[in-house]
Batch of 4 targets.
Target 1
Amino acid sequence: MKRQLQSSKAGILLALAGLLMAGVGMHRGEMSTVFEKAVKICMECIGIG
């Protein structure tokens, strides 16, 4: 039981760290940069861009 409790604490901690980093990235405006790059790559893959 103790080991399971430790692993769930680690999972929760990692999830919170991920959410924090995603929030910081959105605040810095990186979400739009990533989206623009994804659109360009998609256009190149199908031969339009």
Target 2
Amino acid sequence: MNNTMASKDTKQYAASHKFARIAPRKARLVADMIRGKKIEDAIAVLDFSPRRGAWFIKTVLRSAVANAEEANLDVGRLFVSESRVDEGPTIKRFQPKDRGRSHPIMKRTSHIHVSVDVR
């Protein structure tokens, strides 16, 4: 029996931002850009990204890196092992329209999860 998976003793360091006020569809576009990259490259991509979700994901990424630094890991060896955006609850509002009608407004929220690992 091959025990190569059991011999890997690295621990993932994760951070999350729950109930972020951004639609998951928009945040996933940014989360896909940094998955698998080194930390320096991922932060550079997020710094220069014009998308609004980059700010949310960059704060979660920095928190995950800080969690890894607490365990005295070398930041230069870290990479983004997981970046995913789950759908949170939708806040439902209504916009009044003409002739007594109303149109629904769906304010979507996201749960952003980022994990870093040593390569």
Target 3
Amino acid sequence: MSAVESPRKIEVFPVIGLEVHAQLLTRSKIFCGCPVTVGAPPNSATCPVCLGFPGTLPVLNREAVTLALRLALAAGATLHRESQFARKNYFYPDLPKGYQISQYDRPFSTGGSIAIDTPEGEKAIRLVRIHLEEDAGKLLHDTPYDDVPENVSLVDWNRAGVPLVEIVGEPDLRSAEEAASYLTELRRLVRYTGVCDGDMEKGSLRCDANVSVRTSPTAPLGTRVEIKNVNSIRFVAKAIEHEIERQAQSLARGEAIVQETRLWDEKGGRTVSMRSKEEAHDYRYFPEPDLGLLVLDEKWIAEARGALPELPRRRRERLATAHGLAPQDADTLVSARELADYYERVVAAGVPGRLAANWVTGEALRWMKERRVSTEQALSFSVSPERLAGLLKLVESGEISAASGKDVLVAMLDSSTEAAAIVAEKGLGRMRDTGALEAAVAEIVAGNPSQVALFKSGKTQTFGWFVGQVMKKTGGRADPAAVREALTRALESAGP
């Protein structure tokens, strides 16, 4: 249980529930054939159906239902063989019909959970429901057009009718950290299952946070405040932290918490009031008369279940167990399905799991970030898993040092040449000439009499310094075991 203290030491216990909208990865909208577009000219991807013209009829997109099925199954939710669409009535300029087709009392699925990691162990965050609905349009308040006055807002209806699933969580979260962990796991799940690209900055995944506080863990729930449409996991955590503190200070001053919707002001680092909070009855839900019941048959469910990949938490457990990976490394590897695939292909090419994990989470991931290759694009990285495996086999066998391996990887970034050829071309292989090694050792020992004297006086830690100097002298190509043997002989036979 997480407690937060106000400046007047009023201890409060937060209660948090998240509502997340995920845009489904379909080519067309949920009730018409208009394309789902990004960056298209404003109002170019619209038709009479998604604009709500009289006499038009919606037709449900089967692929949208299939993707919702996949997510509900992945979350362990209870599917309802029959669900019903409803009209959610409200007026905004970006809602051309004057209502939104959604689901309410007969949703697509109920129950299920998203597991998160906490300092106390794994915690299951329960779900209320997952339901289908259509998106609204988009209002542009700060317009980029020179001929539009500053006090004029524009509307783009391209997004109207884009398919969404809303994932409504129970108020099981007790801190901003838990909320961030939940969102991270949920985003990972929708990406693994191919339901949504999870891009919060572009609005593909949008989060509303319901936050309340109470004065003891067993006290009745406090008045909840909704924080609307926060566009990054980091900002969600910051908004929740601020709202908890704001409510704590209000209680400390003896003020009542007002049920309302607030927005996160990123520049000001605060939440600001937007409007009073609507209740379900404000929307006057009633069954959508132009759509029949959505009926799921066993074949459809079985097909969706068969399309599920190994889910991220199960994959993390398997990789950690099979290859003896540190929990942090395993978590990094499964952060994106494509990155985990990249790693497993390196291992499949004959590289030990730990060695592969060290390089994929280290050098490979570093260069992906440097080249602006996202983890979801890992398999398109210029150094393929099989090419990296070829390099790591040289490191594992001792043919090259780890330091030389990093240099070889850099050379591979902009070349199709394999690691072995680069090693041969640059002469980076292990030094085989024992005479050259003995000469390098002798030169280092003879040139550093003071260090030799320290070693002779019993300060044997200077031995490591000598090893480092020889490795530097040989460009890291000398075999460390051979270096130690040669140094031991040279130091023992050195002067008094």
Target 4
Amino acid sequence: MRSRDDWAAAASQLSVRTGLYIDGRYQSAHAGESFECVNPATGAVIAHMARGQAADVDAAVASGVAAWKDRRWRGLAPRARMDVLQRFADLVQQHSQELALLETLDMGKPFSDVLGIDIPEVLKTIRYFAECIDKIEGAVTHTDASALHLILHEPLGVVGAITPWNYPMLMAMWKVAPILAAGNCVVLKPAEQAPLSCTRLAQLFVEAGGPPGVFNLVNGFGPEAGQALALHPDVIKLSFTGSTAVGKLLLGYAGQSNMKRVALETGGKSPQIFLNDLYDLDAAVDRAVGGIYDNAGQVCNAGSRLLVQRDIHDEFVRRFIARSALAYRAGDPLDPATTLGPLVSHAHQRNVLARIARGISEGAQLAMGGGSVGPLPGGAFVEPTLFTGATAGMSICREEVFGPVTAVTAFDTEDEAIALANDSDYGLAAAVWTSDLKKAHHFVAHLEAGVVWVNSFGDGDMTQPFGGFKQSGNSRDKHMMSLLSYTQSKSAWFSLG
């Protein structure tokens, strides 16, 4: 295993692309402006990125429209598009260390996690949707003999994608891969907090044989580049993962412009329910710990509400604290021994610490953590934090913290657990732990969430649609249904009489 010094030396040799990627080449922003990319582990400036604004979005969309109209991508045979995406995956794999280092420096995720978890999932995503391309099927309906009726699935056109910073490459590929597989062109705006790896991915697509103009990328801020993309009349659909507040803005922009389709995945406050008949308390605690502290809690479906039946509550909390102390070691993200990196920025660190303080002021009991840890000077770290005695009305149980913070609430009856779980504006994910199959089915039927895990948390593969109910959004990533959501149906009626 290579050491922290080895990876730091490799990081120092990285060539960072700072331009916008439009029509197959990097270029400066139209206004010549830039913004800083900051390493959240140290506070050091990594690079100055081109700051895309409305004029740059116009150029990126125009490039996509030109590629759409001359059919340089959608006009390729399905197997030809499949080959490009497979080569794209091959190049991502070949450049995996470079991409992982860029992501670690940019958003603070431990390098071993990016290389061992995120990159393999990125590859699975690209390859899955590549293999789906020639599996898109229409239909011939049963009509009168005097007619032939076909139902076809066609790509949409130029699609905009706005993606978050918590899993920069993976969340981008959850959108870009099916958009491209369906035959569309895409303009990606990655989060300004962590754009480096995505900026490189756009170039790798062209290196793989993707036609210029099919995959364009504009870095910049939401109120500038993001808003311009959402308002653009030539963008036929917008796909977004991020906060509920921004998702609502994007719906408004769609109405103000061309009534573009808007696919939203907008956060969660996921409950995990632990019944007293669960089969293995240690296994349940392990998954509860990982469900909130992995990626420093910066996960949209993080298990941030732990609902524990009262007669196992105290033992659950005791084991949770003990397990957390063993599992999470804050440190330099380039150190293979580090299991807890910083939050993405100092601004986000301040926000999370403020939410912890609010939880204390509302009466929740701080059982573990609650402060910032400082293994590196200038790092945006927050300790793994656990509240007990939390009630449904507290902000710590209602608002998405997006950090390593969770709250335990005791319950007595199964009906109470279901009511507590569903008492939320969100409905992204949920889990139930029980050894009773009948109870498991009952909870699955009654939990208001787009993904429900039984005796697990966070498990799944590319066959699992991912998305939520209520204010967690209206779309699904992964699965064939994601690909089909970037198509539109056409009815072709042939008169044979």
